[in-house]
Amino acid sequence: MKAIIFEEFGGPDVLHEAEVDVPSPGPGQVRARVRTAGANPFDVKVRSGAMREVFPTPLPSTPGAEFAGVVEELGEGVTELAVGDEVFGWSDTGAYAEQVLATRVVRKPAELSWEEAAALPVAGETSQRALDLLAVTAGDVLLVHGAAGGVGTIGVQLAVARGATVIGTASEANHEHLRALGATPLLYGDGLVERVREIAPNGVDAVYDVAGRGALPDSIELRGGTSRIVTIADPAASELGVPFSSGGGTPEENVALLTELAGLAASGRLTIAVASTAPLADAAKVHEQVESGHARGKVVLLVG
To answer: Where does residue 126 fall: left (phi above 0), alpha (psi -120 to 50 degrees), or beta otherwise?
Structure first.
């Protein structure tokens, strides 16, 4: 089967297509033919080597954590799914491939497109986990760095649903998008502290850093310390005393959450933003786009 691999850490050009063996499912796993795969900033950071200390990656490696596809083989003990089921969730083996093994999957609602389904697992679980860690609740003022991307878009909506007031940083081109989601948009970069204080003179109660673009010092200044700040993208977090959150929950909890979020999306109560799509062979170009940080929503690879 075809898969995208990288055999050394580096820029997008280290990604290339290769022929690899079709994997066989173990107990509790399914093998699925991939239709779509989500591309995340985390994939970019893993490929670059920036995450080696917090996320060891053996080489060669296939990127990608989320996919949507069709079940082709069941591992021992899998009884809740059948061959031919349309599913989506997290890949155990790297989603930039024609076939994946997966443990945490749910059936895809007919109302969700393949692209939307591949864009939901990482964004949904990551944001729910981060908001829980921050204990975001009604009345809080939450600052979200990188609010217009795939993860940020979901995080903004989940926070608004909790009753929080959300301030989201993004490029000006994405400000109307954030307003439509219920957030107050701000331009990121130099002068951010002053811009936040202009619209939140009483300060912010929590900070959710999705972007990982050096926003933590400003966040610490706004909070007056490191409490109630979490990043999912800045490898310098430990040096600043800020928690880095990457993955969490049991498979059962992940499946339950994804089922809940899929229901919200299928009913129109949760918007899944897909910025663009590209064929699997263009994974390097996709990483360049994700790395630019200007995508409105998730970039999705079309695989099969």
So the answer is: alpha
* The model's pTM: 0.90
H helix intervals, the chain: 41-48, 114-119, 121-134, 150-161, 175-181, 192-199, 216-223, 237-240, 251-266, 283-292
- Domain residue spans in the chain? 2-120+272-302, 123-240
CATH topology of domain 123-240: Rossmann fold (3.40.50)
Distance, in Å, from the CA atom of 282 to the CA atom of 302, rounded to the nearest integer, reads: 10
Tokens of 165: 């007031």
Q: Which CATH number among 3.30.9.10, 3.40.718.10, 3.60.10.10, 3.90.180.10 corresponds to the domain 2-120+272-302?
A: 3.90.180.10
**Model confidence pLDDT, tens digit, residues 206-252:** 999 998 878 999 999 999 999 999 999 888 898 999 999 877 778 89
